[in-house]
Amino acid sequence: MKNIPTTTASLTIALVVTVMTSNQSTAQTTAQPAVQQASAGTLDNSPAQLAKAFLTAVQQGDHTVPKALLHPNVKWHQPGKHRFAGLKVSSAAVFQMVGAMSEASTKTLRLAEVKSITVHGNQVACLINWKAVMEGGGGVLDVDNIDVYTIQDGKIVEARIFSADLAQEDNFWGW
């Protein structure tokens, strides 16, 4: 590997992206059937399918599937020093955070792209891109994240979010 990053965050992201890229062909599955199955209540419980269904529903603005896939006592680790950062310990707290983020970004926050999904046991690492714009010159958010979901019994029980540019997120979301 050439040009190995020197910071811990960059090294972690480079390592995960390298692993994700090398495993992408074996972990990729189609998301659309999983979302349709989730709506019908017959979702394939494989970690990759659950993560794809969750993220596809988020992209489409479908709140039903994420509510069905997040465990009521999910532990959601949102990184940073901004007003939305910190540990959330229920699906209700996660939805409250996301709703507040949507309002703060004047409803422009969107999951723009799911770049890669890879699986290791019951954990799923997802390389995704978020975008948002603050009206009135408040800034632009365009950041890659790696979300690592732990899945048990067909539910996301834990989410650890890693940001490629935490300073951008902190500046965008503010206090």
TrEMBL record:
<protein>
    <submittedName>
        <fullName>Nuclear transport factor 2 family protein</fullName>
    </submittedName>
</protein>
<dbReference type="Pfam" id="PF12680">
    <property type="entry name" value="SnoaL_2"/>
</dbReference>
<dbReference type="InterPro" id="IPR032710">
    <property type="entry name" value="NTF2-like_dom_sf"/>
</dbReference>
<feature type="domain" description="SnoaL-like">
    <location>
        <begin position="52"/>
        <end position="158"/>
    </location>
</feature>
<feature type="signal peptide">
    <location>
        <begin position="1"/>
        <end position="27"/>
    </location>
</feature>
<keyword id="KW-0732">Signal</keyword>
<dbReference type="InterPro" id="IPR037401">
    <property type="entry name" value="SnoaL-like"/>
</dbReference>
